[in-house]
Amino acid sequence: MLVEGAVGCGKTHTLEAVTAHAAKAGALVLKAYGTSADRAPLGTLRQLLDSPRLPKATADHLRKALDQGALDASQPRETPGGDPAGVTQPHIQAAREFRAALYELALREPVVICVDELQLVDAESLQYLLYLATRSRSAKLLMVFAQATDSDQKDAVFNTELLRQPNFQRLRLERLSWEETAHLLTTRLGLPDSADVAYTWYEVSGGNPLLLRAVMDDYRTAGAPPRHGRAVEPVVGDMFVQAVLTCVYRSGHTVSRLAEGIAVLGASASPELLGRLLRIGPAGTRRGVAALDAAGLVDGLAFRHPYVEAAVLEDMDPEVRLDMNRRAAVLLHQGGGGTLAVARHLLAAQGTDEPWAVPLLRDAAQQALAEDDAKLAVACLELAYAACQDEELRAGIRIGTAGIMWRLNPSASERMLEEPLAALCADRLPAAHIGRLVELLLAHGRIEEARGAIGRLNAVMSNAGPTSMAQFRMTARWAQDSGAPDRGPGAAARQGEDGGASRTPLRSRRPSSLSTITAAFSGFFGRGGSEESPVAAAEKVLEVSPLTDATFEPIVNSVNALVYAGRPDKAAPWCDSLMEEAERRRAPGWRAIFASIRAEIALRQGNLVESAAYATIALDIVPGSDGSVFIGGPLASQILAYTAMGKYDAAARQLSRPVPEALFKSIYGLGYTRARGRYYLATNRINAALGEFLMAGRLAQLWELDQPALLPWRSDAAEAWLELGDREKAAKLVSEQLARKGAGDSRVRGVSLRLLAAAGDIENRSRLLGQAVEELQCSGDRLELARALDDLGRTLRGSGELGRADAITGRAWRMAKECGAEELCDRIRLDSGLEARDPRPVVRPMSGPLGPKPAVPPTLGTKLSESEARVAALAVDGYTNREIAASLFITISTVEQHLTRVYRKLNIRSRQQLPTALRAQVDEIA
């Protein structure tokens, strides 16, 4: 009997069942198995002598015959071909003795000989077995052989001679069907009797019993993961991987090589390409693939599970694998294979000397970016850089890689600039690449290096004509004046015919100083003579620009434009959507940049907890950021947020984090230095704080980035001077800040007016604080508004207006509480005497069609309509126009019209002059 089947389909299990049954029936069972590790002549048959039930006399007889046969086999002779059983002449006598010993034994009791892995049995043993099979038909002897299907090591003569025997039977074992798979899953694992469940497990195992048993063991080892409904997914673990490798390498050398070829080629595999790669003929390729298919390892020319492919690749000899990938790349390129497919093989080969490799890898990088696979793009460019011999091209590849790496890791992108920077300093960087290097330095905020690069660029351009200047890829932010608040962010991308971002080349003007790039960080980068506002221009850019490598910098600049133009409320939703888009596009570096901006936006809105959370996201996304200047941005936001919350220990921990020295030569260093100063100020180290603010101011002036919307260092320093008791210096700094460009920002003006009130005479304090409140209400910064309201409440209390002071102070406390500024809340309570009572006003609900009605004295009520009185009453309580509109279900414009009429009827000029008798008895507004 010959049992055949693919590897893993149960041949050995069948033999074990036969031997168990025969032994139970009283037969003498002799077992042997073929192995590639022992191919000594007659080595397999010697295993038959190991049976403990074999009589000693028979064993001695068999051993003598095998010894003689081995001796004959060691003597080279010509082989005559006349023996019908295939036994050569020198072996006939020994074979007869071997047969006689077993025949004599079979006369006394039934004998069963089982030989597994027949395709690996040595040739001499096969000759003896065949001689025995063809000349022992009358003996009580059963011979059972097991052999792998489609093995390239089968003995064709042996199989043919067996077919000629009338007492021969052949048993073919097939893979399990999915119905049989379902039965096993139900009986062995207790899984639901579901076609969907069975088919999933069948797809992984291919119906191969060995692989199915392995994946079932992995499932048990994993602790039977929880089921979701009737879906029970298989678990692919070590047992499955080892079973796969066993199936592959027990199928023979040719099949193993084909498995390796399929794993290497992946989706590019075809029978023709496999044959060329492995130097195997078409027939051998067909047989080998058929063997893999019979074992359930492949579906077509693809492994059924990615773990199978990974396991085969991992088990390959490293040098063989590298060589196979190199040849696969060449063959694919010669056959017109896809660029990315060829590039992946070059990457797997870890290098190439082919002349076409560098341009192909650069093209592959662009294709990978189009598919949002930045990791693959960077890998292609790194390999192209290593293979390239042209210095100018190498420089361009390195700088291009740094730009793409920004998608993944801003810190790594920044580190990649060190090499071209060193080349620039040594006058080895080709002129064509200086412009892009400066762009990236600016994008990373590295001001000092950008200054040096611009100087060298100017030197190069002074010797260049107008035509050659156009080769430099300058952004429009260099070509326009900066700092003008009435101009829009014109460095943004404009959609061209190709859907990409067009850059404005530098024509007749050189960036003679950093004043031409101030706008990149201030948000007020210009658009020539356009009268379009920065906010409108920035929003237009964001609306029409998709997020790509070409538009990323203009998009970041446009978001910053909204922030620094005093519209964080407009910047926040754009930033949120861009963070989501970056995550979807597998660009963690971009997401980190937008998260850092989002932290600053939250800070400018007074949302301290939110700011710290976004800063944490930015820091956690980017590994190894401690060596990058980028860390300064989110760290500054965290320190400022924790300091404003009163969490000084948390702020101190962030300040203790190591930062690179280069941080203080970058744009991020300004914010970090300011944050450190704010911490010192809050912890009563006033002189240290003043030193930080003044240092930040000097750097901002040196770099011509001295704009209050970007860095309000004067108001910070003024606050420190006030703590030191020098009101004159404080007032001077604040007045200077109010006089500068960019001080039209309502947040800057509000903070400046609050400090100017503190530094000035008591007579003007209430008026200045009222103006500060108005400005800060427009800015949306609830924390700064809470500080201004607190100061106004103190001033009113000092002038005897206790009722109005309590209302405004209560409002300040509530805003500080909403912002998470617990330290400010505590100070308001203590300073205002509210610690013994709830700082929220006591209210009485009044009925009315539009909500609560105010209690208005008759003398005032006769002048005001009911709607005007209601609006005025809420204004007295310190609510903003937006909050009044939301409370009364009217528009902000209607609120403004009502207040204008109230001012006219009461002969006053601002809401600060509204009589406290108008205070509303209303429900608290959250």
From TrEMBL:
The keyword Nucleotide-binding applies. InterPro entries: AAA_16 (IPR041664), P-loop_NTPase (IPR027417), Sig_transdc_resp-reg_C-effctor (IPR016032), TPR-like_helical_dom_sf (IPR011990), Tscrpt_reg_LuxR_C (IPR000792), WH-like_DNA-bd_sf (IPR036388). Residues 69-88, 479-512 are annotated as: Disordered. Residues 483-494 have a biased composition (Low complexity). It holds the Pfam family GerE. It comes from the Bacteria. SMART domains: HTH_LUXR. Keywords: ATP-binding, Nucleotide-binding. Coiled coil: none annotated. Residues 857-922 form the HTH luxR-type domain. PROSITE patterns: HTH_LUXR_1 (PS00622), HTH_LUXR_2 (PS50043). Signal peptide: none annotated. SUPFAM superfamilies: C-terminal effector domain of the bipartite response regulators, P-loop containing nucleoside triphosphate hydrolases, TPR-like. PANTHER family: TESTICULAR SOLUBLE ADENYLYL CYCLASE (PTHR16305), TRANSCRIPTIONAL ACTIVATOR DOMAIN (PTHR16305:SF35). This is HTH luxR-type domain-containing protein. It comes from Streptomyces mordarskii.
